[in-house]
# Entry
Amino acid sequence: MGALDDGRFGLELVDGVSVEVGFELETLPIEEAVKVLLQGLGEDINREGLRKTPARVAKALSEGTRGLVLRGHEKGPIERWNADSNSYRQKAKDIVQGALFPEVGLDDGVGHAGGVGGLVIVRDLDLFSYCESCLLPFQVKCHVGYVPSGQRVVGLSKLSRVADVFAKRLQDPQRLVDEVCSALNHGIKPAGVAVVLQCLHIHFPNLELGYLDSNHQEWVKASVCSGEGLFESTKAAIWSDFLSLLKFRGINVEKTCTRDSTVPCWCPSLSSSASTPCKIEPVHQMVAAVTSILKSLGEDPLRKELLGSADRYVRWLKNFEKAELELMLNGFVCGKMDPLQPNCSKEEMHLELNLAFWSLCEHHLLPFHGVMHIGYFCTKGTNPIARSILESIVHFYGFKLQVQERLTRQVSETVSSLLGGDVIVVVEASHSCMVSRGIEKLGSNTATMALLGRFSFDAAAKNMFLQSIQNTSTS
# Structure
């Protein structure tokens, strides 16, 4: 057996002592801090949907940053941080040492293959990490290539496990790719190793505008790379082979940053647009609570990359503070929109598709976002309700602690009260809590539907609406 049993995440040597990686953080301080955040949003921490939220958030954070406790819990946060580099490298070495297998190469002078000189690439490794600037999760598509030497190859699954060790902490894309590359080079001792990461960071709109910009880009993308040995120079011919093998899968990473460059505006909270004066003032108690969470996770809140992160996270979180519908819509719907008469002859179906929304899962305090499709009947020749009004309704119910099922119901009932009852709402959303927790189901999407009035029994009307969504998706 190797140093790392395939059936476990394993043990790690820390100062010559074997430490169980399965060690769980003391989550009570995190739970207490989460309660402060919920109360700062005006929420009742004892209401049914929030009672277990502090425990869920603490568990999700401990899972998502478990790389930070690999060194053992006998040290304080700063000591653990200072021991970080050597400790992670040792962990990576432990992972691969038990999975190096003998494999002869081709005879000298014939070519490159097998255990000597043959390029090996593992593509599309799905990972996630947490942005150290805003503390929100980001998605990673990882591609690893190496050139074996010494007539040895490594078990392919270990490449993913090494990358995961470094991803499970507060990170920056360039540091992440450099650390993974360095650790693999240290553990495998190949002729060369290269790592490319394609990162996606959720990008929330400017909420102070009062509406969602139709041109808003929901993701910030960054591609970064790192290489050692034969790959140390990005101009080396072997990089061309590496990138060509990526292109076979439709992966184009021509605009890729290296360790000698910087990723411009990677985190939206640090971008030029986010640097404009903000009307949302963070609450001191909430900032202190986030700082406490960072310490509980084994981080040093005073390291330069984390300065201001707690403040930025609280400013973002305050966007989901409880509010009243009339305040959010500024009386526009109720004051200026006469509801259609429910007994009029309804002959035309009106559709408003792809209404963007953003929300916060009340179970894990992680964002989810997507689009909403709304359909309704009104009298032929009547002007349909303005899209901006529907956007305001969606905007209001989205920007609060939510679950998708409730969001779907609330929007459908509000629209129904304005338009006389015959309403259909379909919500499609991607949930960060499906990615950045133990389940780690990247690419998953959740759809919910509400059928009111005629749409609940008229199959033809319902199917016409659903077909319209499908036509839009495929066009």
